[in-house]
Write a structure and sequence with these properties.
single chain; mainly beta; seven-stranded antiparallel sheet; two-stranded antiparallel ribbon; 9 strands; about 10% helix
Length: about 220
């Protein structure tokens, strides 16, 4: 009898892990889905913004005629329902990117093809440096500086709008036209957003979407 009981105990010890795996047993928090610290989104909020870029990576030639006619005044836009609208470059904003300007940001097979942040707080894609003309503005701080809080202790929720002009609480922002394609899947009426200061382009801020794990350059357009 003792031998029989011991045999059943040994069989259960080997079978239990397999049973748990078949029933969808979960890995520890932060190590699910995409490979531990390289996960993206899912509510993670970085403890800090990106470091200053050391050097600019090689890029395709920018064929946009002139990005320097910007005065940082965004027009009212129609809600997008989560998809980018086809639009011409707007007066008062840097020009929207063309396909030949783009690079790949997919550093892992299942990561977004846009700038994003890993769960170990590595910022992917913020490395163009201070000389990036895509973020040049002729009249910086036209609407003042964002008076709200920065970083993970200040998570906001989008209250409406679109990529040209969105808001949360009593603050208006607009996405840089060069970054329009980076926010195609944002929900403008409820996504969780955290604002970080940009160490390379001080006129701009970085809006991080905790749901998608992606971010874009945004500019402050004043109080609502």
């Amino acid at each position: 009898m003792k031998i029989l009981i011991a045999s059943f105990a040994l069989l259960f010890a080997f079978a239990a892990p397999a049973f748990t795996q078949e029933r969808g047993g979960q890995a520890p928090r932060g190590e699910q889905q995409h490979g531990g610290s390289h996960d993206v989104g899912g509510g993670h909020v970085p403890a800090h913004g990106p470091p200053p870029a050391r050097s600019a990576p090689s890029r395709p030639e920018n064929r946009a005629q002139d990005n320097r006619s910007a005065d940082n005044r965004a027009p009212q836009g129609r809600p997008q329902e989560g998809r980018p609208q086809e639009s011409r470059p707007q007066e008062g904003r840097p020009q929207e990117a063309r396909p030949q300007d783009r690079r790949s940001f997919r550093d892992q097979p299942n990561h977004p093809e846009v700038p994003h942040v890993h769960h170990d707080d590595t910022w992917v894609g913020h490395d163009s440096g201070r000389g990036d003309e895509h973020y040049h503005i002729d009249h910086p701080w036209e609407h003042g500086r964002f008076p709200g809080g920065f970083g993970r202790e200040h998570e906001y929720h989008l209250g409406g709008g679109d990529r040209d002009r969105f808001w949360f609480n009593n603050f208006y922002f607009g996405v840089a036209p060069y970054d329009y394609d980076y926010v195609f899947d944002w929900y403008w009426n409820n996504d969780p957003i955290v604002i970080y200061e940009d160490p390379d382009h001080p006129v701009w801020y970085l809006a991080y979407n905790a749901r998608t794990g992606t971010y874009a350059h945004v500019t402050y357009l004043g109080p609502r």
